[in-house]
Design goal:
Elements (H helix, E strand, L loop, with lengths): L4 E3 L15 H16 L7 E4 L1 H8 L3 H9 L6 H16 L6 H11 L6 E7 L16 E5 L4 H10 L4 H9 L9 E7 L3 E8 L10 E7 L2 H5 L6 E7 L5 E6 L5 E6 L2 E10 L12 H18 L3 E8 L4 E8 L7 E5 L13 H21 L4 H6 L1 H4 L3 E4 L2 E5 H8 L5 H12 L17 H16 L1 H17 L11 H16 L3 H24 L7 H5 L7 H17 L2 H9 L29 H12 L5 H14 L19 H11 L5 H23 L4 H47 L14 H9 L7 H13 L8 E5 L2 H4 L24 E3 L1 E4 L2 E8 L12 E4 L7 H4 L4 E4 L7 H8 L4 E3 L4 H4 L5 E5 L4 E6 L2
Parallel strand pairs: 20-21, 21-22, 22-23
Antiparallel strand pairs: 1-2, 2-5, 3-4, 3-5, 6-7, 6-12, 7-8, 8-9, 10-11, 12-13, 14-16, 14-17, 15-16, 18-25, 19-23, 20-24, 24-25
Helix pairs in contact: 3-4, 4-6, 10-18, 14-18, 16-18, 16-26, 17-26, 18-26, 20-23, 20-24, 22-24
């Protein structure tokens, strides 16, 4: 048909040629609707007037249009509006080419009495990803046949509205270089309408966002009615999880009862619907599925408009790309990094940690076959794997996805990695269930990974031996005896050695998560009705690792202290070791792991008792045992990876304080080990009863569990090796701080932690930018002491990061309304991830600083823990933390020592009131608040 391009719903059975509605003829808006219709999606019938019809009508008007535009002063709104009105008059009087053909097509497609929507689309620009021209073109609703031609003229004129002219002027575009297509579409009399984004339009996050209101879509799009918002995420089981924010909705837009063809007018919403959700959960999930189908079809995240008519039928009336520049997006998460770097962090810690991540992951990618040239190109991402936000360390997730994406096998282990990192599927905005690489492309990378897995035991043994050779000669070294440049040279020597070793420890993380996932799947398949805590129990009794060895060594020291009443009496005289003192009652001076809190005992008293012990006054054997522990394990303490926190070898009296507290309890090393072995033995018996003592399934599971326990041992051992690496750096930095203070460059040796590693080394080797280090340290200390409010665990920025990140979390956490979980007795349950079996009832103690006291038998509630919390955990009857996985340090510790443990309970430190009576079930992850504080 000459001059008319037709698109009818595929459901109606009309055939559509592939080239009928091309974007260069009818614009992106209508070409997209044709694509959706051909795919069987519910698009109301339409036909289009291609841009050539506009050109035919506009060509006779060209000179008069150019004359009107030549007089425009774009600094004067009235001048722009006057030109737009003049051009509108020109089109209103212009003949419409092929008018008879257009009306005949109207009758054929719709019937002469049908009401339609008449919409304009600027060809080549509107509804494109790069330049959407949103809101620039006009649309007319409830149009009858008698008004059709006038509305077509008005659509053509909308290419020259005041807004369009200003838009093109600002974009430095040709003011007359516009072509307008017109779409005539059957009017869907929507009673409920929506706008759907298949990703968050603010950030690009992989979350479906739906805004819905009563009436037709114009009310929602133009924000003329109350709107409900629905946020939909897909969890790891594939189920869509819905969060809703409901509005009061007193009005809707709809046809004027007196003149339906006169356009939409505000109408009242029935009283019983005003506070009701516009969409049901089933409809929201259906729209989520439709949105994903549209996105898959069009190849990019989409902004979709649609409506439900009175009969419940769904109609899609528009889809355009979400206009967001993802190159400007940065995604941040501290989901599990807070285990290593909790709270506010100094410049020295952050600069060291940035270099640490770059070095170890460079080694990982090298081992897995990423070419050196590729790694060189990716240097900006390697340098920015973490960032500092309000003084706290966050992963920069876009860098991680970019770098991991260099591994051909990443799609295969992506889900396990996201779980380990505490991320939702597809956190980078891509489809987590997208296409997998071909087998041919995977063959060589899989062979490389398989070889690494098969040789993993030997590789980890080699790592531990090689690291011991590096660190052995540096334990307890007096760094101040060396010339500063020699210390720095030795620092680099350790760094080179560690950088060539550490990749294997990251491969262990993959080995560990692979075996953990396999064990979970086998138990779910072979014991579908089994105990959810069985896997946790089976992981007890693993091969002893260094983290556990440190605790057992501390408890054995406590047993020896317990046998020396004179030592305990001397400690009690200073206020240390009394039965009502918790592990958290002592601090380490400025160290978060020892010294004592004000009012308990003077630090000098404790140091004097330590000096007597070290001199052998309480027995040479005891002094030797303490020295041996400090030599082997002196780098284990609270927040041990933070340069501002000295380790036990620098303040050994803290270890004495800890052992004194344990000495007043009934803890024994044999008792701790026996409890764990009993849990494991009982779990093994349950497994044998379920599967049979000679079954192949039992043998397979035992092999997988054995590999899993060994992976846990490797990880905990390498974590302590990491503590030693950081410990060496900490000692070198401290010695350089003392040197700079002696030279008068710094006022206080402790100020060194407020310098970056590059600034510190640069002062000595001549590569630094500034010789005035004290002003830098002063400025950084001010930022450290006033870092700003804590940010969410996961957030996204678009553009300049400080300008687009959230303001922070409320200081006191979210308010809890009566009847909500965690509010009052009977208020409901909180649920996390059960990680260590046991039901316990007790008083919750919310611990944000590990120096806080923890009464024996209390339930420890924290945001996160690190290995240094082990001493505090042993005092707890149960452990609940906001972050972590079943293989996190907290979970492993709980299982190892038989402490009921729940991890991953979001908001636990604010939802569980400090001092409340709670009951927790470490098997199911359930916490019930029984009574308020």
């Amino acid at each position: 048909m000459s001059g008319v391009a037709t698109c009818t719903s595929a459901k109606a059975g009309s055939a559509i040629a592939a080239g009928d509605l091309r974007p260069d003829e009818v614009g992106n808006k209508f070409a997209t609707l044709a694509t959706l219709s051909r795919a069987g999606l519910p698009v109301p019938e339409l036909f289009c007037l291609p841009a050539q019809r506009y050109r035919d009508a506009a060509e006779p008007l060209r000179e008069r249009i150019e004359l009107a535009l030549s007089a425009v002063d774009f600094d004067q709104a009235q001048s722009v509006s006057a030109a737009a009105a003049r051009i509108k008059e020109l089109f209103a009087a212009a003949p419409v080419p092929d008018e008879g053909t257009i009306l005949a097509e109207f009758d054929r497609v719709f019937g002469p009495r049908t009401l339609v929507a008449v919409r304009a689309c600027v060809v080549g620009a509107e509804d494109s990803a790069s330049d959407p021209h949103a809101g620039m073109s006009d649309s007319f609703l409830y149009v009858g046949r008698d008004r059709l031609v006038d509305r077509i003229r008005a659509c053509w004129a909308s290419g020259f509205t005041a807004e369009s002219l200003l838009y093109r002027h600002v974009q430095d575009m040709d003011l007359t270089g516009v072509a307008v297509a017109v779409g005539i579409q059957r009017m869907a009399f929507g009673e409920r309408s929506f706008v759907l984004f298949t990703c968050d339009p603010r950030s690009g996050d992989r979350e479906t966002v739906i805004a819905a209101g009563w009436g037709i879509g114009e009310g929602v799009v133009q924000e003329k009615v109350g709107v409900d918002h629905f946020f939909v995420r897909t969890d790891r089981t594939g189920r869509r999880q819905i969060r809703a924010l409901l509005a009061h909705k007193p009005e809707r837009l709809g046809p004027d009862p007196a003149d339906p063809a006169g356009g939409p007018v505000p109408l009242p919403v029935p009283a019983d619907q005003r506070d009701r959700p516009v969409l049901s959960d089933a409809e929201v999930r259906r729209l989520g599925d439709i949105g994903q189908q549209v996105e898959d079809l069009l190849g990019a995240p989409q902004d979709i408009e649609g409506t439900f008519t009175a009969d419940g039928a769904l109609h899609l009336v528009q889809a355009r790309p979400v206009a967001i520049d993802l190159t400007l997006r940065r995604q941040w998460s501290n989901a599990n990094i807070t285990e290593s770097f909790p709270g506010v962090t100094t410049a020295l810690t952050y600069s060291f940690a940035r270099r640490f991540y770059r070095a170890i992951f460079y080694d990982l990618y090298r081992r897995l076959g990423v070419p050196a040239r590729t790694l060189h190109r990716d240097e900006p991402y390697l340098e920015r794997m973490i960032g500092l936000q309000h003084g706290r360390v966050y992963y920069q997730l876009d860098a991680w996805y970019r770098l991991h994406g260099r591994l051909a096998v990443f799609p295969l282990f992506r889900s396990a990695w996201e779980t380990m990192m505490g991320l939702e599927p597809g956190a980078d905005g891509s489809r987590a269930d997208g296409p997998r690489p071909s087998l041919a492309r995977l063959a060589l990378p899989l062979a490389r990974v398989a070889r690494r897995f098969l040789a993993h035991d030997r590789a980890m043994a080699g790592f531990e031996a090689a690291w011991e050779a590096v660190i052995r000669q540096r334990r307890g070294r007096d760094w101040s005896a060396m010339e500063p440049l020699a210390r720095i040279a030795d620092f680099h020597a350790v760094w080179r050695a560690a950088g060539d070793l550490w990749g294997v420890t990251l491969i262990n993380d993959s080995v560990l998560s692979t075996h953990a996932g396999l064990a979970q799947k086998l138990l779910a398949r072979w014991l579908p009705d089994g105990d959810p805590a069985l896997l946790c129990d089976l992981l007890c009794g693993d091969e002893e690792n260094k983290s556990v060895a440190i605790v057992l060594s501390t408890v054995r020291l406590a047993e020896q202290v317990r046998a020396r009443p004179g030592l305990l009496a001397d400690l009690e005289a200073g206020g240390i070791g009394a039965g009502d003192v918790g592990a958290g009652d002592v601090e380490a001076g400025d160290v978060e792991a020892g010294d004592v809190e004000a009012g308990d005992v003077e630090a000098g008293d404790l140091e004097r008792v330590w000096a007597r012990l070290d001199a052998g006054e309480y027995g040479a054997e005891l002094a030797g045992a303490f020295r041996l522990h400090l030599h082997r394990y002196g780098d284990r303490s609270l927040q041990e990876l933070k340069m501002e926190q000295p380790n036990l070898r620098h303040a050994p009296w803290e270890l004495l304080a800890l052992t004194a507290q344990y000495a007043r309890s009934d803890l024994t090393a044999d008792g701790l080990q026996g409890r764990e072995l009993n849990i494991r033995a009982a779990a093994e018996r349950r497994l044998e009863l379920a599967l049979g003592t000679r079954s192949v399934r039992l043998r397979v599971l035992r092999w997988v569990l054995g590999r899993l326990r060994r992976g846990v041992r490797y990880r905990e051992n390498s974590r302590y090796c990491r503590s030693e690496w950081f410990g060496v750096a900490k000692e070198i930095f401290a010695s350089l701080g003392a040197d700079l203070a002696a030279r008068g460059v710094l006022r206080d040796p402790a100020d060194v932690v407020h310098l970056t590693m590059e600034e510190l080394f640069g002062w000595y080797d001549g590569t630094g930018v500034s010789a005035a280090l004290q002003p830098l340290a002063d400025a950084r200390r001010a930022e450290f002491e006033a870092p700003g409010p804590e940010l969410p665990m996961r957030f996204t920025t678009v553009g300049t990061v400080p300008a687009s990140r959230p303001a922070g979390l409320p200081a006191a956490g979210p308010a809890i309304k009566p009847g909500e979980p965690g509010a009052t007795p009977g208020g409901g349950e909180l649920r996390g991830l059960g990680s260590s079996r046991g039901m316990v009832r007790g008083t919750a103690r919310v611990v944000l600083d590990p120096r806080q006291p923890l009464p024996p038998g209390a339930i420890l509630v924290a945001r996160e823990t690190d290995p240094g919390w082990l001493f505090l955990m042993l005092r707890a009857a149960g452990i609940v933390v906001e972050r972590g996985t079943m293989l996190s340090h907290t979970a492993i510790t709980g299982r190892k020592f038989g402490i009921p443990t729940i991890v991953g309970l979001a908001g636990a430190s604010t939802l569980i009131p400090d001092g409340a009576l709670v009951e927790m079930d470490g098997a199911t992850g359930r916490v019930t608040i029984l009574a308020g504080p």
